[in-house]
Design goal:
Layout (H helix, E strand, L loop, with lengths): L18 H8 L4 H4 L6 E3 L6 E4 L6 E4 L2 H10 L33 E4 L5 H17 L9 H7 L2 E5 L9 E6 L2 E7 L3 H17 L3 E4 L1 H9 L8 H8 L3 E4 L4 E5 L5 E7 L2
Parallel strand pairs: 7-8
Antiparallel strand pairs: 1-2, 2-3, 4-5, 5-6, 6-7, 8-11, 9-10, 10-11
Helix pairs in contact: 4-5
Length: 264
């Protein structure tokens, strides 16, 4: 029988939110969150976000709707085509932490996105918004909190004197989903090289278009051309194959786009 867990928020007319509810929603891996079992799905205590643990491995994921959360809890699959049984890069323990007061310079730090300091998260969002707006790319999140809820892992690097990160990469289920820099040349070089390394030798994949696709071509990144594999990776948003590994798919917020998948 399906285990449905709904976080209790108290009476609707009571504005005060329990600290334990905040922890329960935003800090995965704590003892409170660990009470959720594989196959559970529940609504967040503070936001309208739904959460679920996959039925076999108990991987935690977040969704916009109850239907999507239930699908992940019961089937281990989501609408983007991810499947806990065939994930190309399974979740792994992450012990690194980007400490503003004490972190190495010019080295990548990998951290669970849910544990990022709020001031750093706001900085990442502003970088993302600036870069994607300038490139004419569609935004997938419109606030720092929405961006944080949408992905699992962040990789950050600091290349200058101030303590804030100058470039970052967001990952979900083994796929590089989003990246941005502060616009500095050294940060741009660092993020490009890191992404190339990730798709060439670290087991990640990248769905690219426009400028990022041109960069991947120039760097000789491996292209995934197997049609059946591409259709499975893209999921229900896939529309049709084009030439040389390119394909057309739907965008989350409406419209279509031509993409190419890189990885091994």
């Amino acid at each position: 029988m399906q285990n449905v867990v709904r976080t209790r928020c108290g009476r609707k007319d009571v504005e005060m939110i329990k600290l334990t509810d905040l922890i329960k929603e935003f800090v995965p891996g704590t003892m409170l969150d660990a009470r959720k079992k594989p196959g559970d799905y529940w609504k967040g205590a503070v936001t309208d976000t739904w959460y679920a643990r996959s039925p076999k491995y108990g991987w935690r994921n977040s969704f916009d709707t109850e239907e999507e959360a239930k699908m992940w809890a019961e089937e281990g699959k989501d609408l983007e085509g991810y499947d806990e049984e065939t994930a190309e890069h399974p979740p792994e323990p992450i012990e690194e932490d980007y400490d503003l007061d004490n972190h190495p310079k010019k080295e990548w730090i990998k951290q669970d996105l849910a544990t990022i300091d709020p001031s750093i998260m706001e900085e990442l969002f502003q970088m993302y918004k600036t870069v994607y707006t300038a490139e004419g790319l569609q935004l997938s999140a419109f606030s720092a909190s929405e961006l944080q809820r949408s992905y699992e892992i962040v990789m950050l690097i600091d290349v200058d004197e101030d303590p804030m990160p100058d470039a970052f990469i967001l990952v979900r289920k083994g796929r590089i989903k989003l990246l941005a820099t502060d616009g500095g040349m050294e940060a741009k070089k660092a993020v490009v090289q890191k992404v190339v390394d990730m798709v060439k030798s670290e087991g990640y994949s990248l769905e690219a278009s426009k400028k990022m696709n041109d960069i991947m071509i120039a760097k000789g990144a491996p292209v995934i051309t197997d049609k059946a594999r591409l259709e499975k990776m893209v999921g229900p948003k896939f529309i049709k194959h084009l030439e040389d590994g390119y394909y057309e798919r739907d965008l989350k917020k409406g419209g279509t786009v031509v993409k190419r998948m890189y990885g091994k």
